[in-house]
Here is the input.
Amino acid sequence: MEIIPGIESAALAAMGAAKTVAELRQAESQFLGKNGEITGLMKQMGALPKEDRPAFGAAVNSAKARVTELYESRLAELNVEETNARLEGERIDVTLPGRPLRAGTMHVLEQTTRKIKRVLAGLGFEYQEGPELEEFRYNFDALNYPPDHPAMDDQDTFYINDEWLLRTQCTALQGRIFENRQPPLRVFTVGRTFRNEAVDRTHNHTFHQVDCFMIDENVSLAHLKGTLGAFARAMFGEEVKVRFRPDFFPFVEPGVDYAISTPKLFGGRWVELGGAGLIHPNILERYGIDTQRYSGFAFGLGVERIPMMATGVDDLRLFLENDARFLNQFRRELL
Ligand code: FA5
Here is the structure.
C-alpha cells in the first residue's frame, strides 16, 4: 500500500517532464504499459491477504486514473506543439525570389560541328551521314588499301568481328555514296571516329572527323586548295593561310597534309589540320566512274583540332570527359 504514492508521483513526474510525444509514450509504457510499474502493482494484489485487496485495488486504480489523465492531457498538448513546430518549419516564404534555372550550354564540339556544317553547306556541299559501326570493306578495302597494307596499322580500331568495326575515318562514307550515285558529287560528313590509340593529349580513342569530297569534270588540286582556303577563312578568319605538304594516304594520289596559320592563333605557327588529295583513280574505276571524264578531291580533318586552336585547350580528352566545370566555359559561339 505504501509504495503506491511513490510510483504515482514518479509516473506524474515523468509525464510532466516529457518534452516530446515520443518521450511521453516512453513514460506511458514504463508505468501504464503491459509490463509497466502501475500495471505491475495490480499483479501483486493476489499475494495480499483477501481483506486487504479491495482497498489496495481501489488505491491503485485511482493512482492509475490520475496518471492516465495527466498522460492524455500532456499528449494533447505535445501533439499541438509538435504540429505547430512542424508547420513553422515548413512555412513557405512566398516573397522569396525564385531559384534561377541553370541553363545548359551547347557542347563545344556541337558548336564546332554546326559551324562546319554551315560553312560547307554554304560552299555547295551536301551533308550525308555514315554509320559509326562500319564494315571493314568500306573503312579499308573500298579506299584502296591493299590487303595487309601497313597503312592499316596506323588505324587499328575496335573490331566486332572480321567484317565489322568502329570506323577509323569518315572517309568510309565514300564507298557507300559511290555505290549508289554518279558524279557530279559534292558531299561531306561530320561524325564520330574511333581508333585503338596510345591515348595522349592530342590522341583519343574516340574523336570526330570531317570528311568532304567533290567529283566533277576537270577537278584538280587547285579546286582542293581553293575550297580548303575558303573553308579555313570562314572558320578562322580572313588572315588565315593554308599550307600543303606531300603525304601518303592509299585513297588519294597525289596526297597531302595541310596546315593552317593565322596571326591570331599560336603566334602564327603552322598547325596541322588533316589530310587531303585527289581521289585515287583506282577508287573511281572500282565504282564505274569514268576517269577520263571525272576526277575528284577529298579532304578530312579532326574536329577537336578546331576548338583546341580557337581556345588554347591543350588536351582533347577534356572534350569527352563531360566535366561541367570545363564545358560551361564555352557559353558563347567560339568561332
Ligand atoms: C585520315 O583519317 C584521313 N581519312 C584523312 C583524309 C581524308 C586524307 C580524305 C585524304 C583524303 P588521319 O589519320 O591523318 O587521316 O586523320 C585526320 C585527322 O584526324 C588528323 O589530322 C587529326 O586531326 C585527327 N585525328 C586522327 N587521329 C586522332 C586521334 N586519335 N584523336 C584525335 N584526333 C585524331
